[in-house]
Write a structure and sequence with these properties.
Layout lengths: L4 H32 L3 H24 L4 H6 L1 H5 L6 H34 L5 H5 L2 H17 L4 H17 L10 H8 L3 H12 L6 H27 L10
Helix pairs in contact: 1-2, 2-5, 2-7, 5-7, 5-11, 7-8, 7-11, 10-11
Length: 245
């Protein structure tokens, strides 16, 4: 990584600019009626919904192909010709992309907060901060899939999130009985834990350490799974040769 961090960040944003633009436009089109209504409560709700959707979108956009892109084309062979630890190399790349996704989320949060103040609406900072764990969790999940699946890893991650959301919505893991419910709750995205953490921030619950521990443990687990995938791919000779231009 001879390119400076600032330069790599600019290049990453440039490479994702079209996806970012299309995502924001699509959200704004769906929210146009509420934004144009002139009703303060509707505009505030639209802003919160937009922010919530971007908390889900930013990790997928910036983490797409974080490892699988190199593994699929063989570019990883070029990076790893130098004396670097492949696991450390891709963990650093993961950290950089996660920080960019988090920075974009925080900028969006700041914009929504300014809009809330300008509209004279009640402060919703606790509700907004309660969405931030999604950025961490989804970034880790996308990284984990990207280290093991060379094609379509981001789509698989999106499908995994969707399946987990549906399973929690219908309370499916709880119907399995022990110990299977524990197993599936450990595998699925910890949406209930994120909800409990958000409830603490908005002041309707005193529970914070258990959901926070669940969120962090889940994120570390998927990051470790991704690191294992990098090690396995490199050491088992599964890397394709670099494509010739």
């Amino acid at each position: 990584m001879h390119t400076s961090l600032a330069r790599r960040t600019v290049l990453l944003i440039q490479s994702r600019f079209k996806a970012l633009l299309l995502t924001v436009l699509a959200i704004q089109i769906t929210e146009f009626r509420r934004l144009a209504s002139g009703d303060i409560s509707a505009m505030l709700a639209s802003g919160i919904d937009t922010y919530s959707l971007l908390c889900l979108a930013f990790p997928f956009i910036f983490m797409a192909g974080v490892v699988s892109g190199d593994f699929r084309t063989g570019v990883a062979r070029l990076w790893l010709q130098k004396p670097v630890d492949p696991v450390r190399f891709y963990l650093c790349r993961f950290a950089e992309r996660f920080l960019v996704a988090l920075a974009c989320t925080l900028l969006t949060l700041g914009a929504i907060r300014l809009g809330t103040v300008a509209l004279g609406a009640p402060d919703e900072i606790g509700l907004l901060l309660g969405r931030l764990p999604y950025v961490l969790v989804l970034a880790c999940v996308t990284f984990g899939f990207s280290c093991w699946i060379s094609r379509g890893s981001t789509l698989v991650a999106i499908g995994f999130l969707s399946a987990g959301a549906v399973a929690h919505q219908v309370a499916w893991p709880g119907q399995l009985g022990r110990p299977w419910n524990w197993l599936f709750e450990a595998i699925l995205v910890p949406i209930p834990a994120i909800g409990e953490f958000r409830d603490f921030l908005v002041g309707v619950s005193d529970a914070v350490w258990i959901p926070l521990a669940q969120i962090l443990t889940y994120s570390v687990g998927w990051t470790g799974l991704g690191a294992l995938g990098v090690w396995y791919t490199v050491n088992k000779g599964r890397l394709p040769h670099a494509e010739q231009s």
